[in-house]
Amino acid sequence: MSHPREWIEVRKEGVYCRAGDFYIDPMHPVEVAVVTHGHADHARSGHGHVFATPKTLAIMRSRYGDDHFNGAEHPMPYGQALEINGVKVSLHPAGHILGSAQAKLDYDGASIVFSGDYKRRFDPTCEPFEPVPCDVFVTEATFALPVFRHPPLEDEIARLLVSLEQFPDRCHLIGVYALGKCQRLMVALRQAGYAETIYLHGAMVRLCELYEQLGVALGPWDVVTPENAKTLAGRVVLCPPSALKDRWSRKLPEVLTAAASGWMRIRARAKQKGVELPLVISDHADWDELLETLKDVGAPEVWVTHGRDDALVYAAHEMGLKAQALHLLGYEDDSE
Amino acid sequence: MKAFSRLLERLYYEHSTLGKERLLLDYFRETPDPDRGYAVAIIGDSLSLPNFKRGMVLELIRARTDPNLWAMSHDYVGELSETVAHLWPGVPSEEDLPSLSDVVDALRHTPKAQLPDYVAGLLDRMTSPERWALLKIGTGSLRIGVSARLLKQVLARYGNQPVETVETLWHGVDPPYEPLFAWLEGRAEAPVVIEKLTFTPVMLAHALEEKDYGLITPDRYAAEWKYDGIRVQVVHSGIGRALFTRTGDDISGSFPDVLEHLNFHAVLDGELLVQRGDEVGSFNDLQQRLGRKSPSAKHMADYPAGIIAYDVLMLEGEDVRPQTYTERRTLLANALDHYQPAGIRLSPELPYTAFSELEDLRGSVDNASVIEGLMLKRRDSAYVAGRPTGPWYKWKINPKLVDAVLMYAQRGSGKRSSFYSDFTFGLWSGNQLLPIGKAYFGFTDAELKELDKWVRHNTLQAFGPVREVRKELVFEVAFDAVQRSSRHKSGYALRFPRINRIRWDKPAQEADQLPVLETLLPPGL
């Protein structure tokens, strides 16, 4: 048996499996890539062979076109293992966004799980996280401080609905990630009984259509146009965070700026972005979920990637686990 | 209490003054006495809760959290109240909280020994925003962007009364201000007050830009030095004396010697500096005085404080602000000549016949420990509160620049909390880097994020909240002056250092050598 540290290394392209000659979520084009989920900092175009869940591949095609790869796509349904150059690889639900997966690698009697980005909360738009037993568990640490405890989704949606009632004259413009957060927020609003048309920035349209094709019902929605923009007082409009302060948003009436992100918990961060209604809604595990996951997975050794690694490494040591930080340059650990 | 917490939350995130005004007006309308009065006192920072100390809050949270996780969290969030609010264990209860006045009453009157239990009992039942509100009530400094001035304006608007009347009454009423609200709502006569010493809002200058150079002619603008001290307002009237900072903080207690100097009834605008006879001390000298709340006689003798006066607002009971600069200056010069106050001198006018002479004057300034540039004041201008465009310009000397290497980083507080934004940098001395200073601004928000990320990925080791980083990133550092300093290992201290540019492109080996500072020292030192 050989310990994963002997056949896994961090290169400038990303995490590299030397035994199988492939990368996991590489940041530059490589010959063989295993991709955990469709967010742009994990799924890039131009690889030779891409191994990912069918839904992640669909997302990549939608974002980068049908020719996002040079060799071939290798769809991997959850739980079905295959071999890449002698290393057994399988994908398991991560609960982060539609199609998101953890990658489990088995080689020479040892196993390692790369959890990618994940959360444990209920999310109607994707399959729930599944703890996978392994020797080494690689976890993210985006919100790895005990100050990050995300409130229940329903409470945040309720605050949004109260604000819509209180300020019927103001257009509620919410900055959200176009992939995952946008659709989760739409479905959560529907579940809370909000039946009005939801208006979308053009950048959200393709991915919303894709989610609907893949079976996630989003309710009535429409695109913001120069013609309807003026009529959106008291309505919900979703846009990418970067468009909140854009020229684009100036045509909307009496904008009330909101944002849905785990960072909204920290006052200064919300304020820095000029957010008036911070909604603490995250697609990453909070502190309690991270610790719970280390327990559930039960791996004796933990590697901690992007985020606030020092606190999670410390907490893992306190739990009696072996733990170390793994510095992965390039992942956008500050965005959500 | 819940209503007040919601108000604070909304005020915190509301950035327009009009919006804040609307939120406050609604709250005054919907909230009964005495809750609203206590809210005014809390927001206006006029409620004193001597037993509620930071230390008590720290003790409470330390008893409930892992010390290392607490330290990392506090370091990240950058603010005590918010960190405790997020970190406090427990699930908020469904039942209602006591009213704001009940809470204030308990915080004031609970015996000191029982106060921690009372506060913990409340925190246990609260949500994170409610905890934040309670801790902010206790420890003060809300930072919700509502100044005392704005609060008075809103109260005036609430009662449809002139703000001047509210300001006059303000100093004679106490929380929870029931007579004030009764008057504002037309239910009673205005409360009777006794006159107090008050601060008059000061006039500020714009930076002179190249496009403004043409405006500056000797017949229209007078020139004075811009001093590198502390802008103060010194007040002497029939009821006493006071010394205020330019933001209205009363610092009389720290400078009893300065108060003594003003031997006639007036409100003067000037610069506070250490003055030994004719010699003016450096900013370092002044700093020796700034920290002391009640300085000893010896300390005052070692660092005697005085004022260089440049304007007069009130003279012997008369408001002279509407008069022109030229007229006010004559009044000021005559008064100083007549009363001969020790330790107060007139800021001299710098004669010139052409703009080019001012450029030469500015270029000649080198001992920047006392002078940091020129002030240009329009001769026909009245003294107006705020920063009007045109009457006053400041023209600071060009900063000096060095390329230094980032050595240590620490997370900031306030607006920049949770990011690595306090940077210590150094210059080469042979193969070794020696720190020369610290800066926490000069970069954009986008650059801040890049820097934060760079620090987290290039940390060599951590000493508590301080991270030592790889010696690979070069900053172009701007500063106003350099002085010798025995307190720094490098032997130099920079005045007002800030990051001018981040030199992502420059190899650290090509940063400046320490001896370069020697050439930038003021002459004769």
Supply the key terms.
heterodimer; A: alpha/beta; six-stranded mixed sheet; 7 helices; 22% helix; 26% strand; globular; B: alpha+beta; seven-stranded mixed sheet; seven-stranded antiparallel sheet; 18 helices; 34% helix
Structure write-up:
- The complex is a heterodimer of chains A (336) and B (525).
- Chain A is of the alpha/beta class and 336 residues long.
- Chain A contains 7 helices and 19 strands.
- A 7-stranded mixed sheet of chain A has the order 7-8-9-10-11-18-19, covered by helices on one side. In chain A, strands 1-2-3-4-5-6 form a 6-stranded mixed sheet.
- The mean pLDDT of chain A is 93.
- Chain B has 18 helices and 20 strands.
- In chain B, strands 3, 4, 5, 6, 7, 8 and 9 form a 7-stranded mixed sheet that branches. In chain B, strands 12, 13, 14, 15, 16, 17 and 20 form a 7-stranded antiparallel sheet that branches.
- In chain B, a hairpin with a 2-residue loop joins β5 and β6.
- The radius of gyration of chain B is 26 Å and the shape is globular.
- The model of chain B has no long low-confidence stretch (mean pLDDT 88).
- At the A-B interface, α5 and α7 of A face α5, α6 and α18 of B.
The unreliable regions of chain B are none
Based on CA atoms alone, the radius of gyration of chain B comes out at: 26 Å
Rg value of chain A: 20 Å
The coarse silhouette of chain A is: globular
Give the topology string of chain A: H per helix, E per strand: EEEEEHEEEEEEHEHEHEEEHEHEHE
Please give the share of residues in helix of chain B.
Answer: 25-40%
Helix content of chain A: 10-25%
> What does the largest sheet of chain B look like?
7 strands, mixed
In terms of DSSP E residues, the strand content of chain A is 25-35%
Distance between the termini of chain B: 60 Å
Mean pLDDT of chain B: 88
Major beta-sheet overview of chain A: 7 strands, mixed
Number of strands of chain B: 20
Largest binding interface between chains = A-B, 29 and 30 residues
Low-confidence stretches of chain A: none
Q: What structural class is derived from the secondary structure elements of chain A?
A: alpha/beta
